[in-house]
Write a structure and sequence with these properties.
The protein has a 6-stranded antiparallel β-sheet, covered by helices on one side. It has a 6-stranded antiparallel β-sheet with strand order 13-12-11-10-15-14, covered by helices on one side. 16% of the residues lie in helices and 26% in strands. It contains 11 helices and 23 strands.
Amino acid sequence: ITYFVSGFDHIMASSHQLPFLPGYRIQTQQKTNFHKQHLFDVNNGIRVNINRENNVVDQRSFPVNATANLQITRTPDDFNDTQDARFKTAASTMSRLPAWVAYDRKVLRFFGFFKEAVYSSPLENFRIRKCVVYYYLEDDSVHIAEPKIENSGIPQGVFIKRHRIPKSNNEFINLNDLFISAELSVYGRIFRLTDCDDFTRAFFKNNGVDLGEAEPYPLDPFTKKHAVEPTRHNKQMHQHKEFMEASLGKQMGIDIASTQKFLKNDGKVLRFYCVWTDTKMYGEQRPYIIHYFLADDTVEVLEVRQNNNGRDPFSSLLKRDKLPKVFQEVAPNVAQIGWRTEQSVQHYTEQDFKIGGTCNVYGRELIICGCDPFTKKYYIENLGYTEADFPKLDMQDPEPPVARMEPPPHTGFGTEEDSLGSFLYLINKVPKIDFKKLMENDGLNLRYLAKFVNPSSEDKNRRFIVTYYMNNDTISIFEKFERNSGFVGGKFLEKCRMQNPATLEWYSPKDLHVGNQLEINKYQFELIEADDFTLEFMKNNPALFGIEEAAQ
């Protein structure tokens, strides 16, 4: 055993001389840590980096750049309040915070510009482009943005995305490079810093650095040529806007009377009904409505729209504005647009409107014909008007008679209903038939014996049978045969409707009484007798024939 131990010691003494091969190396120290190594860990509730060689938590309180002189002087007061209770132990309390924790969401903002050469324009040879430089304290990253200018024609927005920007000496931009009047070389462009925001100034001041006064932006040739000095045009301010500004605290000692008038009469509008007579050729009368706003003495003239008048629907003749009595004094020109009118110009007030009077609206004389009940009440209560001051005027022209085209006389061909149908309709229609009357009076015929009135000697003995058809109000005449009379009997009148020349109405049963005379085609017939059926029918239906009792 002694020999073995001494031999083992000899081997251990000369182990460094053994070849570094498997089986020739002896591990004398036993392994006690079997955890899996990692780089990131959570210490005291904060994510930290672990030094792999020494297993030491990196708890730097400085920014990432080693050359930065600015550092955190104390721990924020509200930091401990944000920590979980399980991390609040005496052993695990950190005296200093990492830079990326203390500077989280803290960004320094500088304003600056860079010059851009312009080669293809005769108006300018360089251009000043303003930009904003953001420096993130947590990781020393920088991003540059250019504010967008409307209608500039230049793509603007994020100029350089957020990252750590290298310098020419293989270092990165840090806090020592940022101050007013500093020039940053970023990828070949020179950015000059001219100003910063209040937070940035306070941050540097707390760390003992004074940034100095802000520098003005230089002007390029294009900006110098098109620069316009701001001027005051003395524009009129709307009364409602003045009221809103007064309610927000603006001093309203000037023109307070108009403001009080606006508050007193807001929403009160006088309405007048007017007519304008166009005296030109083919002129007409056109109705209008005048609205007078008591709040600011403005006038609005609206046109009353009429159907089928052939005009475009322009509802306003005059938009709401003060109406001058002599419009030539305020003739529109470019120099006076939007300016306050002279005090000598007289405008219409509520006292200038009167029923029966006129109102000149830029050359149009509107005759005031009436008003609404509110306007009438306002004038009676405030201006001492009476009912006699509000006469009722009717300016409407009498309606012209409607021209009516009379149908032409019947030509004699066909029925009159057919001829009238071609007059009433573009495409002729078949006349409607009363089928109920046709079916109920089918076969119901009234027959009379007739003779000529005041006949000549040869016509004294001629007799005619007049048949009246109740189903369609038609008449037919048949001449009886008489031997050796010299006249051929037969059909004298084809079945048709006949009109009474005296009344211009169709013959009806009321005209068919024994003893009555009928004029048919210039022939005068006298009814001298009726058959038994006709007499019985007249007795049973006296109202149809317009008599109380049928003649026997």
